Amino acid sequence: SPADGAVKTYRIASIPADGIGPEVIAAGLQALDALARRDGGFTFDVTEFDWGSDRFKKTGALMPADGRDQIKDFDAIFFGAVGAPDVPDHVTLWGLRLPICQGFDQYANVRPTKILPGITSPLAGVGPGDLDWVIVRENSEGEYSGNGGRTHQGMPEEVGTEVSIFTRTGVTRIMRYAFELARSRPRKFLTVVTKSNAQRFGMVMWDEIAAEVAQEFPDVTWDKMLVDAMTVRMVKDPKSLDTIVATNLHADILSDLAGALAGSLGVAPTANIDPERRYPSMFEPIHGSAFDITGKGIANPVATFWTASQMLDHLGETNASARLMRAVEKVCADGIMTPDVGGTATTQEVTDAVCEAIRAEN
Length: 362
Ligand code: ATP
Ligand code: MG
Known about the structure:
Blueprint: E1 8-17, H1 21-39, E2 42-48, H2 53-59, H3 67-71, E3 76-81, H4 89-103, E4 108-114, E5 132-138, E6 142-151, E7 159-165, H5 168-184, E8 189-194, H6 202-214, E9 221-226, H7 227-236, E10 243-246, H8 248-261, E11 269-273, E12 281-285, H9 302-315, H10 318-333, H11 347-360
Parallel strand pairs: 1-2, 1-3, 3-12, 5-10, 8-9, 8-10
Antiparallel strand pairs: 4-5, 4-11, 6-7, 11-12
Helix pairs in contact: 1-9, 1-11, 5-6, 7-8, 9-10, 10-11
The protein binds adenosine-5'-triphosphate and magnesium ion (MG).
Residues 20, 83, 265-266, 287-293, 299-300, 303, 338, 340 line the site of adenosine-5'-triphosphate.
């Protein structure tokens, strides 16, 4: 508390980037400011970096060559969205997000999903409380390791390979992270997803390592699912799931499904975590730059508030994190929502309501 004179200052690197990125990051920073004022025990020192597609069009690079060095000593990275209609997707992906994720070895990608009050799931009869998951995606290897090749291109005998790489180190560390996370949640329950019936090597290794790591967590209950059966369970029995861990590809697909079941892209957050804290972790909304609504003042800021709450958890400010989520849920329940989730409010009206709820809460 401020009484002992020590107000902590967290250094945040903000990268708003493209499209609605700057609009939602501005909203997120207002909420963080309201939380800091309310708490009194911490404050934020935010440095903005003008990296993104505009910079690419002017200079030929989305971020400077020493960009990672410039942000490596920050406490966290608060990221908007990258992508522009006139810049190819692989350029923006490989030019900014991936160099940060890979260079800082953010091997745990964490995607919480729940149905917020006032938001309708496409699943009939499923409301807030019936679906509350966290998907942990292995974010450094697996199917997206970039290994493979093509021979005889364009000829009838053409062959293409796409090789998944699973390492004992990589699987063990993501499994430990997932078990730890499951342990921190009330149900202490983890579902490990693989495809080990059809894929007999790397996937069987996943199952074996899961069983080994489980020994370290006797207080966590866990089960195993094949990814195909998992999609069915997510739709038919969402209440039966809590924390989920899966490979890079499987979790990529499952988290899109999870996002759709929770009602909107505009509310889904993600954290790219270096659990060993050698480097800053990165927090961002899942959605892209959404140029169709850019500048209209109607971008949904909820995904960015939620990822700001993940950032606060990572910084150890768990009270402020919970306070922010309570404020967001109250504002959603009051029907103060943007048009993408059926409301009529602007980004700023939602943001003002969330800041007011932070100030007013007992
Ligand atoms: P990218 O190419 O990076 O995927 P995108 O412009 O295709 O970006 P997406 O994030 O994929 O945008 O979103 C698809 C559509 O969903 C957007 O065009 C927009 O209409 C809507 N959308 C996405 N995020 C939001 C948001 N935060 N608020 C309101 N609508 C959103
Ligand atoms: Mg898109």
